[in-house]
Specification:
This protein has 255 residues and is mainly α. It has two domains: 135 residues, Up-down Bundle (Four Helix Bundle (Hemerythrin (Met), subunit A)); 105 residues, Orthogonal Bundle (Helix Hairpins), CATH 1.10.287.70. It is 68% helix and 0% strand. The protein is built from twelve helices and no strands. Helix 3 packs antiparallel against helix 6 and helix 9 packs across helix 12. The radius of gyration is 24 Å and the shape is extended. It starts with a helix and ends in a 5-residue tail after the last helix.
C-alpha cells in the first residue's frame, strides 16, 4: 500500500471510500472507549486492557499521519515532517497519547520518566484531549472551523473589545468597591463573570455606585457576547448555502 493511499484512508475523504469510512468508525469507537474511564473515580481491570488497546491504536494513527504529513501539508520536503509535529491536530494527538505512555513496559528506560507522573491525576485528565480527536471526523465542526478561520479578523476585534471591557470594568469597580474586592484579580474575575452574565455571586458590589456600575457593565456584556455569536452564525449559514449550491451543481438529477 502506497503512502498516498494510506493518507487517503487516515484522512477524511470521499463518502464512497469504504476503507476510509471503516477507519474513521474504528477511530471514533476507540475514542469513545478510551474516555469512558474518566466517568469513574476508581479503575477496574477492564479499563487497563481497553487503555492498552486504544493506546496502540492512537500511536499507530499518529505515526501514519506523521508519515503522510507531506500529503497533508502539500509540501515536498524533509522539514515538513518536523513542521507537522507542531500543527494543532498533531499536538492534540500527542497530548491524547501522553496518558497511555505510563502503560509501557518499565524496561524501556526512555519512558521511565513518565512513571514519575503515574500518580498525577493531571496526566489522566489529558484523556480529555481525545474528545477533540473526534472533532476531526465531524463535517459540521470542520465547517465551523473554516468559518472561524475566515472570520478571524472580526473575531479578533471582538476579543480585543471584550478584553478592554474587562480591564476597564475591573479598574472602575476595584476603585469604587474597595472593601468588596481585595485584589485587582478579584475585580478582573468579577468583570469576566459579568461579561458572560453568569453572576456566580461569590464576589459582588454592595454600594449603590457599585451596583449601578454592575448594571451598566452587564448591559454592555450582553452586547459584546452577542457579537461573536452573530459573526459565526452568519458565516456558518453562508458556508451551508455554499455547500448546498455545490451539491446542487454536482447532483446528476439536476441534469
Amino acid at each position: 500500500m502506497t503512502r498516498k493511499r494510506i493518507f487517503e484512508i487516515v484522512e477524511v475523504s470521499a463518502d464512497n471510500d469504504k476503507l476510509s469510512y471503516a477507519y474513521d468508525m474504528m477511530m471514533l469507537c476507540s475514542i469513545i472507549i478510551s474516555i469512558i474511564p474518566l466517568a469513574f473515580k476508581h479503575t477496574i481491570p477492564l479499563f487497563h486492557y481497553t487503555d492498552v488497546i486504544t493506546a496502540v491504536v492512537f500511536i499507530a494513527d499518529y505515526l501514519l499521519r506523521w508519515l503522510t504529513a507531506d500529503f497533508k501539508l502539500k509540501e515536498r520536503s524533509v522539514f515538513v515532517f518536523i513542521k507537522y509535529i507542531f500543527t494543532p491536530w498533531a499536538i492534540i494527538d500527542l497530548l491524547s497519547i501522553l496518558p497511555s505512555l505510563t502503560l509501557l513496559n518499565s524496561g524501556f528506560k526512555l519512558f521511565r520518566l513518565f512513571r514519575v507522573f503515574r500518580t498525577l491525576r493531571v496526566i489522566r485528565t489529558f484523556r480529555v484531549f481525545r474528545v477533540f480527536k473526534a472533532l476531526r471526523y465531524s463535517k459540521s465542526i470542520s465547517i465551523i472551523a473554516n468559518v472561524i478561520r475566515s472570520s478571524k479578523d472580526a473575531l479578533l476585534a471582538v476579543c480585543t473589545l471584550a478584553l478592554g471591557y474587562i480591564l476597564i470594568s475591573a479598574l472602575v469597580i476595584f476603585n469604587v468597591e474597595t472593601d468588596s474586592f481585595n485584589t485587582f484579580f478579584d475585580a478582573v474575575y468579577w468583570a469576566t463573570v459579568s461579561l458572560t452574565t453568569v453572576g456566580y455571586g461569590d464576589i459582588y458590589p454592595v454600594t449603590t455606585a457599585g451596583r449601578i456600575i454592575t448594571m451598566i457593565s452587564s448591559m454592555f456584556g450582553i452586547a459584546i457576547v452577542a457579537l461573536p455569536a452573530g459573526i459565526i452564525t452568519a458565516g456558518y449559514m453562508d458556508a451551508i448555502n455554499a455547500n448546498k449550491g455545490e451539491d446542487d451543481v454536482t447532483d446528476p438529477k439536476n441534469d
